[in-house]
Structures are given as C-alpha cells and as structure tokens.
Amino acid sequence: MQEPKLTRIQWLFGNVCNYDCSYCPKQLHTSTVKFSDPRILIDAIQYTVSSLRMIDREPAFEFVGGEPTLNPALLEMCQRMGNKQLQNKLTTNGSASLKWFEEHYHYFSTIEISYHTEFADQQHIEEVVDFLMSQKDTDEQRKVHVRIMMHCTNTDLQWAKAISVYEEFKNKGYPIELKLLYSNFTKGFQYLPYKTYQLDYYFKERGEDWDPEQTMFL
User: Fold this and answer.
1) Taking the C-alpha atoms of 150, 156, 160 and 166 in order, what is their torsion angle to the nearest 10 degrees?
2) Tens of pLDDT along 46-96?
3) Cβ contacts of residue 101 below 8 Å, gap of 6+?
4) Which one in 55, 117, 123, 185 has a CA-CA gap of 20 to 30 Å to 129?
5) C-alpha 130: how far from its chain's center?
6) Residue 172: what pLDDT?
7) E strand or H helix at 124, and its extent?
8) Do 13 and 71 form a contact (C-beta atoms < 8 A)?
9) Maximum distance among all alpha carbons in the chain?
10) What is the three-class DSSP state of 179?
C-alpha cells in the first residue's frame, strides 16, 4: 500500500518566548504577538488535518517560535491529529518541564533543542535529552529523533562557553551540532563576523574545508 504524500506546514504561533537572547532577532521574542485563543488553534489544526487527509495527504507540522512549548493549546492540538505515526517536528529551547516532554514527545518524529548559553539550564537539558533518547520503538509509537543545536556567536566569551558545553555533550554521545548565526535575519545568509579560529573549528567539526582568506576577522 502506497504511503500518502506529506504536506509540510511550518507553524509560528506567536513571538512569545521565555528567553531574551542578545543575538535573537527582536521580532522572534518580544511577546508582542500573543497565542491565539486555544479553541481557534485547536479547530484550525483539526480542519487542516481533515482537509489534507481527504485528498490523501498526510500533514507534517513544524512548530517554531518564539517558544512553542509555552502555547497552552499545543497538547490538545496534537491530540486532534488522530494519528500516532506523525511526521511532526518541534523546535524548542528545551526549557519546558520534563513532565511536559513526557506528555508531548510521542506526537513528534523530531525534537530539535536549540541550546542558548545565556539562559539554558544544562542539567535540565541533559535530563530532557536522556529521557527522549531512552524511549524505544513500540507497536504504538516510534522513537523520537533528537537533535541539539548549539547556538554560537562570534564573541570570544560566548563562543568558549558554547564550545565547552558542546564538547561535553559530544563526549556523552548526545546528538549535537554547532549552529552559526546570521547577521541579516530574513534578508540573506550572511554570517556574523566570526573569527578565523572559530570558523576553523566549525568547519573541521563538520568535516568540511574552507578558505581562510575569505575571512577578514583574525
């Protein structure tokens, strides 16, 4: 039997966030765009899911923010999807309680945790990742794929802190990647002015070559 085709939908509920990272674009975390009424969100996702399945397509939602785990309607929205083999992705800062992840994790095929050194609680992130990675495949639900994205700025102090946690997580076997940040959010792909030693480390970790002559910052 042929599997239905996926329709991918990225859903930004609002710009409500419990972090105020210095490098994050203000429009993503000022809390000026609040979450809609829970009933509206729940009805909207149920309508979207039903409409897609009527034409033999399967929805694959990516919930982003702000911080999507702060949305009080998210659990019931997920429950209204009516399918345990979901291809949903959650992009989160990982600050939600362990209980929250225990109640929600099986609605996602991928959970991407953005690690922000200015606010992240390392012990809590480890507890969340340990829980998610401990879940096994069963007849009723699939193991969630976990990825940690370590956000690195070009300031020496923040870079050092990020790399320290990155290497600690890497040594523990956590699925973690480095993430460079852009200076022109929504307007292109221009990185912050990273220093040569930072770019050298980043590309070596990725197993890629780069041309240091393209870097003006030493």
Assistant:
1) 20
2) 999 999 989 988 889 999 988 999 998 898 888 888 765 578 999 999 999
3) 111, 128, 131, 132
4) 185
5) 17
6) 95
7) helix 122-134
8) yes
9) 57
10) strand
Q: Residues, the chain, total?
A: 218
Phi/psi at 92 (5° precision): -140, 160
Secondary structure (DSSP) of 76-121: HHHHTT--SS---EEEE-S-S-HHHHHHHGGG-SEEEEEE-TTT--
DSSP string, 182-216: BSSTTS---B----HHHHHHHHHHTT----GGG--
Extract the tokens encoding 208: 């890629």
Strand order across the beta sheet in which 57-64 lies: 5-12, 57-64, 89-92, 110-115, 145-152, 176-180
What the block records as the tokens of 56 is: 């033999």
Secondary structure letter of residue 144 according to DSSP: P
Both tokens of residue 126?
């480890």
| Residue 18, both tokens | 């419990």
Site of tokens 């209204």: 80
**Any idea what the Cα angle at residue 105 is, between residues 45 and 91, rounded to 5°?**
70
Pair 185, 25: CB distance under 8 Å: yes
Statement: residue 131 has pLDDT above 70 = yes
Q: pLDDT by residue (tens digit) across 89-130? A: 999 999 999 999 999 998 999 999 999 999 999 999 999 999
